[in-house]
Amino acid sequence: MQRIITSAAIVFAGALLFTGCAAGSNDDTTAQGDDNCEIVRVAVRDVSNGAQNAVLTGTEQAALLEKLDGYSTRLDDLAADNADNPKIADAIAGLQEKVTAAEDYAGTLPTAPDETFEADAEAQAAVTGDIQAAAVTVTEVCEAE
Protein backbone atom coordinates (compact mmCIF):
# COMPACT_ATOMS: atom_id res chain seq x y z
CA MET A 1 0.00 0.00 0.00
CA GLN A 2 2.88 2.36 0.82
CA ARG A 3 4.30 1.91 -2.68
CA ILE A 4 0.99 2.70 -4.32
CA ILE A 5 0.62 5.89 -2.31
CA THR A 6 4.21 6.90 -3.05
CA SER A 7 3.76 6.18 -6.75
CA ALA A 8 0.48 8.08 -6.86
CA ALA A 9 2.11 11.03 -5.11
CA ILE A 10 4.93 11.05 -7.66
CA VAL A 11 2.49 11.06 -10.58
CA PHE A 12 0.37 13.77 -8.98
CA ALA A 13 3.41 15.94 -8.30
CA GLY A 14 4.62 15.39 -11.86
CA ALA A 15 1.24 16.37 -13.24
CA LEU A 16 1.26 19.56 -11.19
CA LEU A 17 4.78 20.35 -12.35
CA PHE A 18 3.86 19.67 -15.97
CA THR A 19 0.72 21.76 -15.72
CA GLY A 20 2.68 24.65 -14.26
CA CYS A 21 5.39 24.41 -16.86
CA ALA A 22 2.87 23.98 -19.63
CA ALA A 23 0.96 27.15 -18.84
CA GLY A 24 0.86 29.53 -21.78
CA SER A 25 3.44 32.25 -22.10
CA ASN A 26 2.90 35.88 -23.10
CA ASP A 27 5.08 35.71 -26.21
CA ASP A 28 4.14 37.75 -29.28
CA THR A 29 3.87 34.69 -31.52
CA THR A 30 1.45 34.21 -34.36
CA ALA A 31 -1.95 32.75 -33.68
CA GLN A 32 -1.15 29.80 -35.92
CA GLY A 33 2.00 29.00 -33.92
CA ASP A 34 0.05 29.29 -30.69
CA ASP A 35 -2.65 26.96 -32.01
CA ASN A 36 -0.09 24.37 -33.09
CA CYS A 37 1.74 24.65 -29.78
CA GLU A 38 -1.54 24.09 -27.94
CA ILE A 39 -2.21 21.00 -30.05
CA VAL A 40 1.28 19.67 -29.32
CA ARG A 41 1.02 20.52 -25.62
CA VAL A 42 -2.33 18.77 -25.20
CA ALA A 43 -1.23 15.69 -27.15
CA VAL A 44 2.03 15.43 -25.22
CA ARG A 45 0.22 15.88 -21.90
CA ASP A 46 -2.24 13.12 -22.80
CA VAL A 47 0.48 10.71 -23.89
CA SER A 48 2.69 11.53 -20.92
CA ASN A 49 -0.08 11.14 -18.36
CA GLY A 50 -1.37 7.98 -20.01
CA ALA A 51 2.06 6.36 -20.22
CA GLN A 52 2.87 7.26 -16.62
CA ASN A 53 -0.45 5.89 -15.39
CA ALA A 54 0.04 2.73 -17.42
CA VAL A 55 3.47 2.18 -15.85
CA LEU A 56 2.16 2.83 -12.35
CA THR A 57 -0.87 0.59 -12.66
CA GLY A 58 0.44 -2.09 -15.01
CA THR A 59 0.75 -5.53 -13.49
CA GLU A 60 1.00 -7.62 -16.65
CA GLN A 61 3.74 -7.38 -19.25
CA ALA A 62 1.65 -7.79 -22.43
CA ALA A 63 -1.00 -5.29 -21.36
CA LEU A 64 1.57 -2.62 -20.52
CA LEU A 65 3.51 -3.22 -23.73
CA GLU A 66 0.29 -2.83 -25.73
CA LYS A 67 -0.51 0.48 -24.04
CA LEU A 68 3.03 1.79 -24.51
CA ASP A 69 2.89 0.80 -28.18
CA GLY A 70 -0.30 2.83 -28.57
CA TYR A 71 1.34 5.89 -27.01
CA SER A 72 4.38 5.38 -29.21
CA THR A 73 2.17 5.37 -32.30
CA ARG A 74 0.51 8.60 -31.20
CA LEU A 75 3.93 10.21 -30.77
CA ASP A 76 4.99 9.00 -34.23
CA ASP A 77 1.93 10.72 -35.68
CA LEU A 78 2.58 13.90 -33.70
CA ALA A 79 6.22 13.98 -34.84
CA ALA A 80 5.13 13.50 -38.47
CA ASP A 81 2.63 16.36 -38.11
CA ASN A 82 5.46 18.59 -36.85
CA ALA A 83 8.21 17.43 -39.20
CA ASP A 84 8.48 20.97 -40.58
CA ASN A 85 9.79 22.15 -37.20
CA PRO A 86 12.96 20.17 -36.37
CA LYS A 87 13.21 21.46 -32.79
CA ILE A 88 9.72 20.30 -31.88
CA ALA A 89 10.14 17.05 -33.81
CA ASP A 90 13.41 16.35 -31.96
CA ALA A 91 11.79 17.07 -28.59
CA ILE A 92 8.92 14.72 -29.46
CA ALA A 93 11.52 12.10 -30.46
CA GLY A 94 13.06 12.52 -26.98
CA LEU A 95 9.70 11.76 -25.39
CA GLN A 96 9.30 8.85 -27.78
CA GLU A 97 12.63 7.44 -26.53
CA LYS A 98 11.43 7.59 -22.92
CA VAL A 99 8.14 5.88 -23.73
CA THR A 100 10.06 3.21 -25.63
CA ALA A 101 12.49 2.85 -22.72
CA ALA A 102 9.51 2.10 -20.49
CA GLU A 103 9.31 -1.20 -22.34
CA ASP A 104 12.41 -2.29 -20.41
CA TYR A 105 10.45 -1.74 -17.21
CA ALA A 106 7.50 -3.64 -18.71
CA GLY A 107 9.87 -6.58 -19.16
CA THR A 108 10.07 -6.88 -15.37
CA LEU A 109 6.34 -7.50 -15.07
CA PRO A 110 4.86 -10.99 -14.96
CA THR A 111 3.61 -12.45 -18.23
CA ALA A 112 0.47 -13.69 -16.51
CA PRO A 113 -1.65 -11.77 -14.00
CA ASP A 114 -0.32 -12.26 -10.49
CA GLU A 115 -2.08 -10.72 -7.49
CA THR A 116 1.00 -11.12 -5.30
CA PHE A 117 3.32 -9.19 -7.62
CA GLU A 118 4.75 -5.97 -6.23
CA ALA A 119 6.24 -3.59 -8.74
CA ASP A 120 9.62 -1.99 -8.13
CA ALA A 121 8.61 1.48 -6.92
CA GLU A 122 12.05 2.95 -7.66
CA ALA A 123 11.96 1.67 -11.23
CA GLN A 124 8.45 3.03 -11.68
CA ALA A 125 9.51 6.42 -10.33
CA ALA A 126 12.54 6.53 -12.64
CA VAL A 127 10.52 5.61 -15.73
CA THR A 128 7.64 7.97 -14.99
CA GLY A 129 10.05 10.76 -14.05
CA ASP A 130 11.90 10.38 -17.34
CA ILE A 131 8.65 10.49 -19.29
CA GLN A 132 7.50 13.55 -17.36
CA ALA A 133 10.79 15.40 -17.91
CA ALA A 134 10.73 14.66 -21.64
CA ALA A 135 7.13 15.90 -21.89
CA VAL A 136 8.05 19.15 -20.13
CA THR A 137 10.92 19.57 -22.57
CA VAL A 138 8.55 19.26 -25.54
CA THR A 139 6.30 21.93 -24.05
CA GLU A 140 9.22 24.26 -23.36
CA VAL A 141 10.59 23.86 -26.89
CA CYS A 142 7.16 24.46 -28.38
CA GLU A 143 6.58 27.59 -26.34
CA ALA A 144 10.05 28.92 -27.23
CA GLU A 145 9.26 28.68 -30.93
Q: Which architecture name does CATH use?
A: Up-down Bundle
The average pLDDT value, as a whole number, equals 83
Main β-sheet description:
none
- Element order: H for helix, E for strand: HHHHH
Oligomer: single chain
| Percent range of helical residues | over 70%
Spans where pLDDT lies below 50 across 5 or more residues: 19-31
- Total domain count: 1
- By DSSP (H or I, 4+ residues per run), the number of helices equals 5
Q: What share of residues are in beta strands? A: under 5%
* Terminal residue distance: 43 Å
Number of beta-strand segments: 0
Topology-level CATH name:
Four Helix Bundle (Hemerythrin (Met), subunit A)
What is the C-alpha radius of gyration, as a whole number of Å?
A: 16 Å
Structural class: mainly alpha
Give an overview of the whole structure.
There is one protein chain. With 145 residues, this protein is mostly helical. It has a single domain (2-144), classed as Four Helix Bundle (Hemerythrin (Met), subunit A), CATH 1.20.120. The protein has five helices and no strands. Helix 2 (31-57) runs antiparallel to helix 3 (61-81). The longest helix is centred in the N-terminal third of the chain and has 27 residues, at 31-57. It is elongated. Residues 19-31 have low confidence and may be disordered.
